[in-house]
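Ticket #4471: structure output looks truncated?

Reporter: J.K.
Steps to reproduce: submitted the chain below (470 residues) through the standard prediction queue, then opened the result file.
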Amino acid sequence: MDNHTPEQRRKNMQAVKNKDSKIEVILRKELWARGLRYRKNAKNIFGSPDIVFVGKKVAVFCDSEFWHGYDWEHKKEEIKSRREFWIPKIERNMQRDREVNEKLTDDGWTVLRFWGKDIKKTPGRCADIIEKAVKRDMPTYKSIDLFAGIGGIRMGFDNAFGENIKTVFVCEWDENAQKTYKANFTDDFEIAGDITQIEEKDVPSFDICLAGFPCQAFSLAGQRKGFDDNYKGLCRGTLFMDVARICEYHKPKVIFCENVKGLVIHDKGRTFKIIKKTFEDLGYQVFTEVLNSKNFGVPQNRERIYLVAFRNDIAPENFVFPKATDDTKRLKDIMEEDAVPAKYYLSETYLQTLKDHKARHAAKGNGFGYEIRAWDDIAGAIVCGGMGRERNLVIDDRQTDLTPTTHIKGEINKESVRKMTPREWARLQGFPDSFKLPLADVHLYKQFGNSVTVNVIEAIAKEIRRVLNG
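Returned output as attached by the reporter:
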């Protein structure tokens, strides 16, 4: 029954005509979280759909039950006042909706309509239907994973592309990293070892090259030849050369690389110039950006440089790297749920050694040394060795049994100072808790310190996917 006053009905009608209704916002947020990018309230398209995927010709309408005639044969009987106005009004809306559907369908569009109550109750299910329609004709891109480590870059791209990416080749020389990789990814081929021993023709054809290559030997090579030579003159003897020669042979659509921020200033900037010029000479448009992991949903201050190279024939005029998505996370968000074993707590002897070491450097005016992080703070960049763990110590008094379980000098410290666990390091890098940790801690610390932040990779990969899918 319509119990609203005429003034209330007038305001309701105005609200329906306006864009950004509550149900539209709910559905758009769900789609955005899945990496689906759209236009909203497209007035230049017949019917002005609420959400539009132009390249895929998918038009989405979010319909209010009252104004669009939900269960009309029954609901119209509930209207008791001003029936002569409301019934023709709503039936005109319904006829208009049918005309819009027919017109768009005739023009090759997929039209999807959702009732507001369904969007509010099951936004995920509505988004599933839209995602299926948007992705059904998307191509599947083949990728290769060079210097794969434990698969962080691959995981980011898998998250972003979903079923529309398939890894066809993996190369990683470290046997322990291979073990962790195999425990978490299922492929129908073996992981290749030394990339320098692999011929280009033996690598399957691919569309996307993923490469977190090490930085080495550029300086010596560059001094021999200078800036103007291509990779064959400048970079022979470096692992970057292997990325270049494989991509020169296969000419993929996209090359994605991650490296330390210092690459930009390595050898007075010459190394980075060599890398960019090499890809440009191979026929690619190169885009780079330094991003910090702390801005992408993990509490870690980790700056890295990311390079995206598009083949010239598909390259956009400009590639926009993702902006910060979430800078609110703190160490308490990645903390182990239960008290951690005593083996992660420092001995009194070792803790005193760290204090003495820091004091000696402080006396010289240096800032080196261990660091205890507060749970409402963020971590420093985790690294594979050296002071990597000691620069990210925490205080955790939940463990009451501090009986040593490993060979240590002295007793466990009374200040409750401990290292973070490998699982906490995994979370710092954006790896889900479903990621298996099959090896001893010493290997896992090295692997996560060497790895990438999955969240950042995923955010960039979503932007790459937007370009590839038009």
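Triage note (M.O.): checked the attachment and the full token line is present. The CA atoms of residues 205 and 225 lie 32 Å apart.
Status: closed, working as intended.
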